[in-house]
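Hi F.,

I've been meaning to write this up properly since the lab meeting, where we talked about keeping a consistent format for the predictions we share between groups. The idea is simple: the sequence comes first, exactly as it goes in, then the structure tokens exactly as they come out, then a line or two of notes. No screenshots and no reformatting. I'm using this chain as the first example so we have something concrete to point to.
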Amino acid sequence: MQDKAFLDTNILIYLYSVEKAKQNQVFKLLASDRSFVISRQVIHEFCNVLLKNFHYPVEKIQSAIEDFTRNFLVIELNSEITNRALMIHQETHFSFYDCLVVSSALFPGCKELFSEDMHDGMKIRDTLKIINPFK
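Output, unedited:
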């Protein structure tokens, strides 16, 4: 069975950015032997950035979302994830939205959380390791 790994929003955005080096790193990561997980929150943040910062057409964003839902496990936010995010916030002092990402990664038992924005190498609750794939 493959280990589950969670992808933060910024990782997915590089798939659609002009930063080719980081884009290639993401493609390499996605080709690895892992089962990838994202959350509905990540999808919403992805949509916001592509609309606001990159001015992507809605149809292309919809196509990307279809690809994500076909290839990744998508975690729906629920009260358990929200409550755990609040506890993680107390423990780590991360922003609440980052805590939702961490909590969503813990929910299905991910071992790794790939993010450019969080503390590379940090372990959360002795089970989830944050990894910056660009270091």
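Notes:
The beta strands are 4-7, 35-39, 73-75, 112-114, 123-124, 128-131.
DSSP finds six helices and six strands in the chain.

If this format works for you, I'll send the rest the same way.

G.
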